[in-house]
Amino acid sequence: MTARRSAAASGSRRGVRRGLAAAALVLGGLASAALLRPADPAASAEVAVVGRGTVEDTVTALGKIQPRAYVDVGAQVSGQLTRLHVTVGQMVREGDLLAEIDPALQQAKVEAGRAERARLTALLAEQRARADFAEAQLARQAALRRSGSGRGEAYDQARMEARIAAAQVEATQAQIRQTDSTLQADEAQLGYTRIYAPMSGTLISVDARQGQTINSAYEAPVLMRIADLSAMTVWTQVSEADVTRLRDGMPLYFTTLGHPGRRWTARLHEILPAPPKPPASGNGGSSATGGGGSANSVVLYTALFEIANDRGELRPDMTAQVFFVAAAAKDTVTVPVAALTPADEVAGRHNVSLIGSGGAIETREVRVGVRDRFNAQILEGLTEGERIVVGWKTDDGRPPKIGFRL
Fold it and tell me: Which DSSP string corresponds to 219-286?
C-alpha cells in the first residue's frame, strides 16, 4: 500500500514537471516570435502633415529710425543767450524766431564801422576838393608854358601835386570799400544774434538754456535740432555675409519694439558703398563696429530706405528689426526643412520619407523652391494632406531633438 502511494506521488511530480516544461516551451516560442517579427517603423516616426502656407527667404538686420530731413541749429556768435523762445516738441515754421543772444558787442562793432565810414566819406570829399584845385593849378601852368611865360619847374610841381591828389582820392575810396566790407560782416554778425528756424518741423531737442554763455570762437555750438517727422529714414546695418544678397528696390518689412503687432513695408532705397568709418581713438585703434582694422571687428554695411510717418508712430532713434525679402511664396505647399534629405541641391532636388496608404514608409523625390529656416516650398512631388517623416523617436519613446537647417 505504501509502495503504491509512493509510485503515484512520483508520477504526479513527473506530470507537473512535464507541464511546466511544456509551458516554458510555449512562452519561449512566443517570445522568439515576438523578437523575430519586424517592428512597425511608422510607430517610431515623428510625422507631420503636408500643409499650405507662406515661405519667405529673408535677410535679417537691425536698424535705427531717423528723420529723413533735419537740421542742427547752432550759434555763429558768442555771447549770453538772453532769450529762448521755443521748447522741446514744439512745431516751428521756417523763419520763426528761436533764440536771441546778447547783441551788445556786435552792435558796438557795427556802430564803430559806421562811424569810420562816415569819417572816410568826409575825408574823400576833402581830397576830391584838393584834387580839383590841383587839376586847376596844373591847367594854369600848362597854359603859361604854352605861351612861353611860365617856368618849367612850376609846371612840374603842379603836375606832381595833381597826381598825388588823385592817388589820395583813390586810396580813400579803397578804404571806404574795405570799411563797407567790414561793416557788412559786422552787421551780419549782429543779425546772427537773432536765431531763426532754417526749416519747418518739430523741435526734437534743445541743448541750451536761457542765460547760458555761448562760445563760438572755435566751432559753432549746437543749440537745438529741428526735424521733419512726416517721413523717416531707416539706417540698417547689414553684415558683409548678407549684403551681397541685397539689391536696390527689393521689398522689405520691419517691426519695432513699441509696436510688436505692427508691420511696416517699404523698398530698399540705397546701399552705401563702404562701411561706416570707425571713430578715431587715442591709441589709433578702430571700433568694433566700423570698417574694422582688427581681425575681430564686424564689418557692417549701411542700407537705407524711407517710410512715411504721417501718424507719427515712428520716433527718432527707435530700433527696427528689418527683414529684406529675397524671395517669397504665398499660399503654397510647404513642409518642414527637417523632413528634407539633399539629393541634388543645385537642381533643388531632395528626398522625403512619407507614410504610404498601407502604413509603410516610402521614399520620394521632391523639388524644392523658396525656403527659410524652418519651412520649404514644395514645387512638385507632394500634395497637401500627405504625411511625412520629420524625425524618429528615441528608444525610450521620447521624440528626438530635431535640428533645423540654417
Answer: S--EEEEEEEEEEEEEEEEEETTTGGG--TT-EEEEEETTEEEEEEEEE--EE-SSPPPPPP-TTS--
The tens digit of pLDDT for each residue in 116-173 reads 999 999 999 999 999 999 999 889 888 888 887 767 788 888 899 999 999 999 999 9
Phi, psi of 66 (to 5 degrees): -135, 155
Alpha helices in 88-209 (DSSP H): 104-147, 152-191
| C-alpha cell of residue 132 | 580839383
Angstrom CA distances, 125 to 169, 210, 292, stand at 9, 48, 68
Residue 14's Cα: distance from chain center in Å? Answer: 94
Q: Please classify residue 74 by burial: count the beta carbons closer than 10 Å to its beta carbon, then call 0-12 exposed, 13-18 middle and 19+ buried.
A: middle
**Angle (CA) 244 334 337, round 5°:** 60
| C-alpha span between 339 and 368 (Å, rounded) | 12
pLDDT at 395: 56
The DSSP bridge partners found for residue 301 are 238
Instruction: State the CB neighbour count (10 A cutoff) for residue 70.
Output: 18
Q: In angstroms, how far is CA 406 from the centroid of its own chain?
A: 25
Q: How far is 303 from 58, CA to CA, in rounded Å?
A: 15
Q: Kind and range of the H or E element at 22?
A: helix 2-36
H/E segment holding residue 17: helix 2-36
- Helix, strand, or coil here: 325? strand
For residue 189, give Cα distances in angstroms to 59, 111, 161, 216, 343: 52, 13, 42, 12, 77
> pLDDT, tens digit, for every residue of 36-95?
444 555 667 788 899 999 999 999 999 999 999 999 999 999 999 999 999 999 999 999
What's the gap between Cα 394 and its chain centre? 47
H or E stretch covering 46: strand 45-49
Map residue 91 onto helix, strand or coil. strand
Q: How far apart are CA 206 and CA 224, in angstroms?
A: 4
AA letter at 161: E
315: nearest Cα among 44, 89, 33: 89
